[in-house]
Amino acid sequence: MFARTMLVAATLSLTVAATAADMQTTVEPGADLAKFRTFMFLDAEPKAKGAITDKKANERLRYMIAQHLNKSGYRPVAPGKPADLGVLFSGHVEPKQRVLMTGRPGPYSYDWGRTQLGGESTLDYREGTLFVDLVDLSRNQLVWRTRFTEALTAGYSEENWKKVDRSLGEAFKKLHSPARVK
Description:
Blueprint: H1 2-18, E1 22-27, E2 38-41, H2 55-71, E3 75-76, E4 85-102, E5 119-136, E6 141-152, H3 158-173
Parallel strand pairs: 2-3, 2-4
Antiparallel strand pairs: 1-6, 4-5, 5-6
Helix pairs in contact: 2-3
């Protein structure tokens, strides 16, 4: 019984770790994302809901987002210079728990003569959600947003950062590249 419980818990643990991110990307109707060429990061208010105040996490996310924007053809501007797009990101991580039924879920015996009641096993994990917004700075209007939620392990592990980077890559595939300058 214990071995079966451990096998089920290990399988669920791998399932949580290997699950693809829940992702949603929206574009403002009629927005021509190909006309934008440059971007700059906007700073969230430190007390705003979802503001990422951890300096290391903030810097790593900025770097990852900038890499994906560069791959999509957008270029960062030097500090103090005007940009076409503003990039604002926010997110949160919350603890989650999954409950598994183990054994037989009822008082019925399939062994003719023995009754074995079902049990439960729990799996604790964290779930992180990240929002990335692109704002048309000339109109101060949101033109593109992606949101994804991913199951995470504890701490700032490289495994977690790889999951975030993979999800950002998928999200930015949906972003139209800027028109090429001739």
